[in-house]
Amino acid sequence: MSADLAAIAAHAEVLRADAQALTACAERLREIEAGLAASGIAPSWLRASVNAHRAACLQAATDLNTAAARLHHYSNATAHP
Amino acid sequence: MNGNDDPAPEHAKAAPAAGKASGIGDSAAGALRGAARELVEVAVTIQETAAHATAALTDGALLRALPRRPAAARPAYRALLRATTNGQGLGCALTGGRLATAAAKIGAMAGAESLAVHVLATSLRLRIAAVAVDHPELTDDPMLARLIDAAAADRDLEAVRALRALLKDRGAVHALSQLAPVFGEVLALRALLDENPLNDAAAWLIATGKGYVTADPLTGLSNRAVAALDTGEGVARRTELTGAEAARLSRRGSLLGFLRDISTVGTTGRILIRSVEGPDGVVRHVLQAPGMRAGRPSGDSPQDLLGAFSSAVLDSSPFSRALARAVADYGLAEGAELALMGHSAGGAAIMNLAQDAEFCARYAVTHVIAIGSPVDFKRPADPRTFVASVTNQHDIIPTLDGQGAGGCFDLHPDWYVVDYFDSTHLFPLCHSIEHYLANLADDLPEARAHLDERLAPFAGPVVRSQAYQLFDHVPDLTGFPFLTVPTYSLDGPAGAVELPIRCRDGSALTAYFTVDPSAAARLLEGTGTGPALRVGGRALVCVHAAWNRRTSAGGYRELHLGVVVPGPDGGGRRRSFLAWPDLLRGAARRRSGSYLVGSVVDTAATFVVAPRLWGGEPHRTPLEFRLTRRCARVTVGSPGDEILTLRGRLGPWLPTLDRDLVGYAGGGGTTLRSCVRTRGPARLHPLPLLRLSVAPEAAHPLADRLRELGLDGARPLLCLASTRRQALRDAAVPISAT
């Protein structure tokens, strides 16, 4: 049982780190689009696409944070009933 | 010495200039490609997070927790399920593991893609935008733009309609040619976004540049499964080039000279190995491999369509193994310096050879130059090998590995890459070796100069050449059992000739005409073979033309004009109608045949022994022979100085077998009998629409004979045609001696 709890806790940590990575991805997407736009070479459709991707990244980060928090909650509740 | 002595890595993605593509790091196109590459990195990160979330969701630890502490475990499970399926977040992001992959495929079939896929699609669109900097027609042309937009927006019906409209308006050749620079990207876009889960992996590979496309991006059919159908150990047999081909080969080593040699050898299933004495006196060697052989998709040649495909997809193929055997047969010393040059599938095959560590340990592969070849994911075993890839952006073949003009990854910074475009956008024209040759000669002087500089050790006189015919398996070269016969040498003016001449592959056309019997009788007078056989009161004559492509005496063409006779002494004084069944017998039992009144042959080697082969007074002259299922064209004489032409449609046909030939001719004061035994399928054309024309100004004896017989402008009564036959021709025998 303790091995299962450890595994679940490890998943929680990974998902939390992934949430941060996705937030960074959203920022990187913004920078990519901004860079092309500043050079005047961004295709007209790019901003809308990147904004959609950024929103999705942020939403995904929220989802992963939520999942990580609930996994943590489970492992804590089980380890310290 | 190795071709890449220069320690500094060399990268020559063609610099921006007229006619050349904008490179990876160049201005607008470079920035767009850079952005596309960054988006790939973002997509890969997103995919990794999706894999982690899926792993947590499917981990047994959490699944076991559900029944034990449902109150705490169920919210966690629900959160993970939402994270991996939320259309506003990661999308349908289940990935990794069989169950998750199956679920993802079901999601893809339902049209639910993941966020990673959407980001990759944006990357591909940026790649298309980068290509459009050099190819504005991609975005300016409303039909092309409509197709690309529909593919990018996952509007299947609209994409199909746009493609159909493009094909209808431009035709397949123009449509493919115009799409060629972004062909891989458009295919990958479609594959990523369509509902077919089988092609997703291929699309992912194209979009991320991680490897060779593993499957057809349209259907998802495994490329390796298709390539595995190309079996064979690979065999190379020495062969001789024709005199005309040998005369066209370059005399000195140079880039253009070597490419011309590839053009000369052509897509005939042959390759060439040549030795040149470099400026330093060292003899070095060059293997020259042309591209795919025209003909059946899967024949006995490793250069067929299947062979081209497997050479591109696999690390080792019958093509590359046959090349290795040719090199071994050529007899290079260990450590000999070898340059490999190939066009199209030949380029892929030589790269396979270059990445064979055992081969590279035996020989010093100094240069690999691939022209119009899909070689992006091949790597030479010896890192010192100088590799150059020359590709036209409108040529689809080099993009078959998934990386074309829109590629945003610097897959091989140490290669010399010339990725260019020219005004000719038509595929397959722009894929031909002749077109690449012309581009390098006229449009790409810097690239040509650089490659010639790298080939400087090969800039010397050619001291040896050998052509090889390649096969998948050990070929039935002797035509067992038909061509497995005792042979003997016959001394001729130009040396010994091995008889009988064994033709492994040939075509023949025999056209029967009817002529004035008195004209035929005049030609037969005193021969002892008349009178001519008659049809409806007219004498029967035949014109037999053959192209003996591969024989034990080299390739040659021949044409004979003969009067059909019952045989010596009038066929034993039999009645004429009794001679007709005799015509159907095999040569060994046949008395009837054609009394030859005119013969021509096109090669010197055959000409010198012709009097021994069929007697008479044969002539040597150029001969053109073309025979298809529908029509024939036989021309005797050189262009502008033709003697006769027999050409036209062959008309309806009946299947039959090729027939033996028996010929009679004068020689040495007696009558000679010659035989050609044949084997192979043939077509009997009872209503041919051919016409024989004799050039008005022709003063050749053959032309005189044809006029005497009244054959100028005549149509044959019937024809027998064979496009694939084997034949045995032995020396003529004096009748008195039998």
Automatic annotation (TrEMBL), chain A:
<protein>
    <submittedName>
        <fullName>Uncharacterized protein</fullName>
    </submittedName>
</protein>
TrEMBL record, chain B:
<protein>
    <recommendedName>
        <fullName>Fungal lipase-like domain-containing protein</fullName>
    </recommendedName>
</protein>
<dbReference type="InterPro" id="IPR029058">
    <property type="entry name" value="AB_hydrolase_fold"/>
</dbReference>
<feature type="region of interest" description="Disordered">
    <location>
        <begin position="1"/>
        <end position="23"/>
    </location>
</feature>
<dbReference type="InterPro" id="IPR023375">
    <property type="entry name" value="ADC_dom_sf"/>
</dbReference>
